[in-house]
Amino acid sequence: MLPSPTLSKFDEKRGLRFPTTLDRDLAYFIGVLAGDGALVSRRKKNGTDYEVKCVGNPKDEKPFYNEVLIPLIKKLFNLDILPHLVDGGTTYGFRIWSKSLVQFLVGVGLPCGRKYEKLRIPQAIKEERPLLPAFIAGLADTDFCVALKRRGKNIQYYPVIELNTASKHIIQEVAEALHEEGFTYSLCLDLSFYDKRIEKEVISHHLCVYGLRNLGLWLEKIGFRNQKHLAKAKLAFERNKKKVAGTRFELMTFGL
Fold first, then answer.
1. From 21, 70, 167, 226, which residue has the greatest number of CB atoms within 10 Å?
2. Whole-model pTM?
3. Class assignment of domain 132-250?
4. 7-115: which CATH number, 3.10.25.10, 3.40.50.1980, 3.10.28.10, 1.10.4030.10?
C-alpha cells in the first residue's frame, strides 16, 4: 500500500495528488529519481524546506524533460511545473518544493539527503517483478550512458550500455535483475580514480551491457524513453544492418 501524506494548504491549492497504486509509470519515475534525482530537506531558522530535484544535461536532455518527465509528473501527481535551467545554468530539469511529496517518495523507498550509501531498489518494486524493468528504465534514462565503440573498425558500431555509480548496492541489485532477465554483462566494483572536480580519490562501480543481442533484449524487456538513448540504439542497428537482417531486431521501431 502506498503512503498518503497529509497535504499542506499550498499543495491542496495547486492540486497535488498521490498515486494509489504502484504501476509501471510510478516505478519508472522512482528509477529516474534514483538516477539523477535528489530528495532534500534543509533546516532553516523558521522551519525546514523540502525539495524534489532532478536535473540533466541541457545540451541533449531538454526534450527528455520537456516531453517525457514533465507530462509524467502531471499524470502521476497532477502538478503543472515548468523545467528550467538549474545550478547556475549548468543543468536542466525541475525542482518541486513540497514536504508531502518528499514524504511520499521516502515512503516508497527513496532516501532523503545523501543517497549513494542508502540507495536500493525499493522493496515494493522487488516484490512486483514486472515493475523491475520500469525502474531500471528510469535509472538508465538518467544515469546510464549508451555509446557506440569502434572495436578496431573505422566507424563506431558496437553498442555498449554503461552505468558508473558511487552506489555499490544499487549496481549489484541491477546486475542481479539483468542476469535474471537473460542479459550478459561485466561488473567491476570498487574502482578508484582521481576526480578533478572535487580534487580527491573516489570509489566508483561500473556495469557494462554490451553487444547487439543485449541491446535488442534491452529494447524488448526494458526500453528507453530518453530520446538520446533511443537515437544511439537506432544508429547501432543502422550500422549493423547485415547482422540484424532476417532477425527480429530488423523489425524494431524506435519512436523517433
1. 226
2. 0.94
3. alpha beta
4. 3.10.28.10
